[in-house]
Automatic annotation (TrEMBL):
Organism: Rhizobium rhizophilum
InterPro entries tied to this protein: Aminoacid_DH-like_N_sf, NAD(P)-bd_dom_sf, Shikimate_DH-bd_N, Shikimate_DH_fam
Xref: PANTHER family: BIFUNCTIONAL 3-DEHYDROQUINATE DEHYDRATASE_SHIKIMATE DEHYDROGENASE, CHLOROPLASTIC, SHIKIMATE DEHYDROGENASE
Name of this protein: Shikimate dehydrogenase
Domain Shikimate dehydrogenase substrate binding N-terminal residue range list: 12-99
Entry keyword set: Amino-acid biosynthesis, Aromatic amino acid biosynthesis, Oxidoreductase
Length: 295
């Protein structure tokens, strides 16, 4: 796609997303490429809508000429039946966070898993992946589980309040990564005690979902902790983990790199990673230290 002055429209569908920095990252990068780029928040909470309204929201975006949509909680899996095609990784994961709208087609992608892997690698380059426990088995959890296994995790235990979901995700990942030991968590404290790292992949800790996903006394200095939530950037989990001596990775890495991937898919242009990282850090400077740039 060549540089143009015609307006390009994209958006984010999700619940409680008013503090999302995705619009600013996309529009700033679009401006650097000479685009008139409009990126809107389509907040289910603000509009008093739910996942069952997804079809209408996509039709609305198509009628307004959107080039794409990002999808977040609670719609990453519910969006699948509404798409005309999905990428190989999104099909494997069973979750979509990016939808390209082009020529009457709705093509789903997943840039979350790569985004999480990039963020974890940059913030905790020597993270011990011998045994990882993950809390959360939804759409984001599918991406983070895929990421840590793709990065070489030898064992992954998956916990969710819905035990059926954790069992299903563990079975899916075990099929994709037969060389690793992947299983649902049966007893949280035992799994945390055995783990070298913890991945948190639920909305808990977001503005609309305050709290911490496990008892803080289970955290210990030898355990690294990685978060997907980034608004706020410094979640209650990360604060508790640092107080107990854990090394932590915030959700900023996943936020930036999933946006890098989505921008490329929406526009056909190659985003400047360093520029997008810098813009994110500028936006979050008042809310906690990010440290996403390579050392």
């Amino acid at each position: 796609m060549t540089k143009q002055r015609d307006i390009m429209r994209a958006g984010l569908i999700g619940y409680g997303i008013q503090r999302s920095l995705t619009p600013a990252m996309h529009m700033q990068e679009g401006l650097a490429h000479g685009l008139d780029y409009s990126y809107e928040l389509i907040d289910l909470n603000e509009r008093k809508l739910g996942p069952d309204d997804l079809e209408n929201l996509i039709v609305e975006a198509e009628e307004r000429g959107f080039c794409g949509l990002n999808i977040t909680y609670p719609c990453k899996q519910k969006i699948l039946p509404l798409l005309t095609d999905v990428s190989d990784d999104a099909r494997k994961l069973g979750a979509v966070n990016t939808v390209v709208l082009r020529d009457g087609k709705r093509i789903g992608h997943n840039t979350d898993w790569w985004g999480f892997a990039q963020g974890l690698t940059r913030q905790l380059p020597d993270a011990d992946l011998t045994s990882v426990i993950q809390i959360g088995a939804g759409g984001a959890g599918a991406a983070t589980a895929f990421a840590v296994l793709e990065m070489g995790a030898k064992a992954l235990a998956i916990s969710d309040i819905d035990q059926t979901k954790s069992a299903e995700l563990a079975s899916l990942m075990a099929g994709l990564f037969p060389e690793a030991r992947v299983e649902p968590v049966r007893e949280l404290s035992t799994s945390v005690e055995r783990a070298t790292g913890l991945v948190h992949a639920t909305p808990m800790g977001m503005d609309k979902h305050p709290g911490i996903p496990l008892p803080a006394d289970l955290l210990r200095p030898s355990l690294w902790v990685a978060e997907i939530v980034y608004f706020p950037l410094d979640t209650a989990l990360l604060q508790a983990a640092r107080r107990r001596g854990c090394r932590v990775a915030n959700g900023g890495g996943m936020a930036v790199f999933q946006a890098v991937g989505a921008f490329s898919l929406f526009t056909g242009l190659e985003p400047d990673v360093s520029r997008m990282l810098g813009h994110f850090e500028m936006l979050t400077r008042g809310g906690g230290e990010v440290r996403l740039q390579s050392a």
